[in-house]
Amino acid sequence: MPSTDVLLLALTLLAALGCALIAGIFLAFSNFVIGALARVAPASGIAAMQSINVVVLNPGFLGLFMGTALACAVLLLVAVWHWQAPGAFYLGVGSLLYLLGTFGVTMACNVPRNNALARQDPASLEAAGFWRAYVASWTMWNHVRTVAALAAALVLAYPLIWFPTAA
For residues 1 and 13, what is the distance between their CA atoms, to the nearest angstrom? Predict the structure, then answer.
């Protein structure tokens, strides 16, 4: 049976990788997906994003997104319980960056916007105005959660490098 140190090391590595993968997914959206959708007719952009928001709710993405949140929650508890241990500060900060800056922002900012978009009729007269505002605000919050996920990955990786027996 693996020791607690080995399990903590594995969990930290998985959390850091999960944060990095989520950051990459969100970066792709900020960098070119939303930009491409904003260049087409609003009705087409709305319909495409509505479809994306349905398709993204799949076991692969949700497993990664929620699994990383769970790993970070466990690491946060470990960090609090073992605050004096080398690397605990980084485990706590990295976990909070993901839990608040990525998971929290997603739930508080991006999901409500997606839900409002789901109620839009792409062919309606008000849809074009809604779409412009949606693209601007959704993308801004997507930038926030992208940076938070990347920062979380980097901070969680730090104890793996400098305190490998403590992570």
Answer: 19
Sites in the chain below the pLDDT cut of 70 = 1, 164-167
Distance CA 99, CA 76 (A): 9
In angstroms, the CA 48 to CA 11 distance is 36
For residue 149, give both structure tokens.
Answer: 């996920």
User: Residue 98 CB: number of other CB atoms within 10 A?
Assistant: 32
Structure tokens at 101: 């800056």
Whole-angstrom CA distances from 2 to 7, 12, 33, 160 are: 7, 15, 42, 17
Residue 42, both tokens: 């609003």
Average pLDDT, the chain: 95
Whole-angstrom CA distances from 141 to 74, 105, 144, 163 are: 25, 7, 5, 33
The verdict on pTM exceeding 0.70 is yes
Residue 83: helix, strand or coil by DSSP? coil
Q: What span, in angstroms and rounded, lies between the C-alpha atoms of 144 and 133? A: 17
The dihedral built from the CA positions of residue 104, 96, 139 and 17, taken in this order, carries a sign that is negative
**What is the C-alpha R_g of the chain?**
18
- State how far the Cα of 155 lies from the Cα of 162, in Å rounded to an integer: 11
